[in-house]
Write a structure and sequence with these properties.
The chain is mainly alpha-helical and 325 residues long. It has helices spanning 18-24, 30-41, 49-56, 60-73, 120-129, 131-144, 150-162, 167-179, 185-198, 203-226, 235-246, 251-265, 270-283, 288-324, and strands spanning 76-79, 82-85. The longest helix is centred in the C-terminal third of the chain and has 37 residues, at 288-324. The protein is elongated.
Length: 325
């Protein structure tokens, strides 16, 4: 007699390492878990990132990020395109940074894009052991309305541990970036590195800086509409706008300078507009009233010079006539 156990849907089962649940169920996030389950279920088959993306509904970039996440946990190992079981907990071949080493006080400049990554087990330990990090991660998940991706978690670790920015300030940075629709890891790290370089490390200093950033974002948005630009401002153009703002010129006066630029050149020309604003700044012109007064004075002066020139011409003509006749 032959016997057969029929488990129904359980006939097709595959193993999931216990460490996934024991150590990473909270940290991993939905996309990372989906990709891991797909890879485990399809052992022996070969898939490109875009194929995995199509079958799981996870973006191709997120697929790569998820695979990197599981590689860094030590659960999976990669040899070119081949994935094999890793040794759980081993992180061979990587430079490990302790998230608990104090920030160096004399650091003035740092490239967070080139800084080494924190690994999932390090992040998990930091969130578990540090109340500030635990608070930061929970609040960021509330802001985003989802579990943070590994590259976002890594960015938060870099921002706090590599720069020494307090968790409260890091949270203010994330909130600003999210409301400004610029909550990408690269942008947040760039802002954090800039703050470190300029010594913006306290809650009060961060509040003041965010106020300035919001004002600049608002001004850039209004100017983009005024200039009828479809693309984003270049770095050089942003620097000019920042310069104009620092000189005290807001939307009202920049609109005047723009109209003059159009009248003179027939198009938007940043260098020409900059010349106008530099001239105003040298003459102390800061408002429409001051500009109108200066324009009237200029017209009056021009008329007077023209009248003098006409009078001179008549006198010269009379003298020539007298000499001739």
């Amino acid at each position: 007699m032959n016997y057969k156990l029929n488990l129904g849907a359980w006939n097709s089962v595959f193993a999931v390492p216990a460490a996934v649940v024991d150590n990473y169920i909270k940290l991993a996030g939905g996309n990372n878990l989906k990709i891991l389950l797909f890879v485990l279920r399809n052992a022996g088959y070969e898939f490109a990132a875009d194929e995995i993306s199509a079958k799981t509904g996870v973006g191709a970039d997120d697929v790569k990020d998820a695979l990197l996440f599981w590689e860094q946990t030590g659960l999976l190992a990669f040899n070119e395109s081949e994935i094999t079981p890793g040794t759980t907990g081993a992180i061979a071949g990587y430079a490990v940074i302790s998230p608990f080493e104090p920030a160096v006080a004399n650091i003035k400049k740092i490239d967070l894009e080139r800084s080494p990554r924190f690994y999932p087990k390090e992040i998990a330990q930091a969130v578990r052991d540090d109340k500030g990090m635990n608070f930061l991660f929970k609040e960021c998940e509330r802001i985003f309305g989802r579990t943070l991706k590994h590259n976002e978690q890594n960015s938060l670790m870099l921002i706090t541990e590599e720069t020494g920015i307090p968790a409260e300030c890091a949270l203010m940075l994330v909130e600003y970036c999210f409301t400004a629709e610029k909550a990408t890891p690269s942008y947040m790290k760039a802002i954090a590195a800039d703050w470190l370089e300029r010594g913006i490390m306290s809650i009060g200093a961060v509040e003041d800086e965010i106020k300035i950033l919001r004002e600049m974002n608002s001004l850039e948005s209004k100017l983009k509409k005024l200039f009828e630009m479809n693309s984003a401002f270049s770095k050089a153009q942003k620097e000019l706008i920042m310069k104009w703002s620092n000189l005290g010129y807001g939307e009202d006066m920049l609109s005047e300078a723009y109209q003059i630029t159009l009248d003179k050149t027939g198009k938007m020309a940043f260098p020409y507009m900059n010349k106008i604003i530099e001239k105003w700044n040298a003459e102390g012109i800061r408002s429409r009233e001051q500009l109108e007064k200066a324009q009237k004075l200029h017209k009056k002066k021009s008329k007077s010079e023209k009248d003098d020139e006409s009078s001179f011409d008549m006198d010269k003509l009379s003298r020539l006539i007298n000499e001739k006749y």
